[in-house]
Please model this.
Amino acid sequence: MAKRAAPEVNAGSMADIAFLLLIFFLVTTTIASDTGINRKLPPKLPDDITAPKIKEKNLFNVIVNKDNQLLVEDQNMELKDLRQAAIEFLDNGGGTEANNKCNYCRGKKNPESSDNPSKAVISLQNSRETNYGTYIAIQNELMAAYAFLREREAKRLYGMTYKDILQGLKDAKKDSDEEKDFEEKKDAVKKLFPEKLSEAEAKE
Model:
């Protein structure tokens, strides 16, 4: 009995189908991109200009050693307590002179702590051997302190959250009155609690 020849499959269009599928997945797939910490380094000061001196009480020192341990204002501190400590420092309002007073601060007004938010500086220094995860967690806690205070002031001034202001600015039409209004609100809140985070050079 003669063998029946196996029918051949026409695979001529398979390459076209595979190509179309490839294009489909490239177009529809969202590729995750790595993002870093949003930081803009200040420009280098000219040689003939000296950096302004900061009063010790207006400086909130955060030091992280190679074992990922925190030293805040010369005191050992757990990471979970850092945010509240930063809030109390920024919101202290201990200034007594007319140009130093903070009328909106709700802190303890400790004369040995920061005068007002515009002069309060958080200084962060870490070891070169500090765990990167710890470094990011500390950054998050410090930024959360600023975010908390800005949220509070946005609600007090405008009856809306700072996040809502930023979202409104994003959604508003360019060059519209609405955009200008949200921009003014954002700047007003940021001026009350300006972000002043100084990162010293890492040590061995």
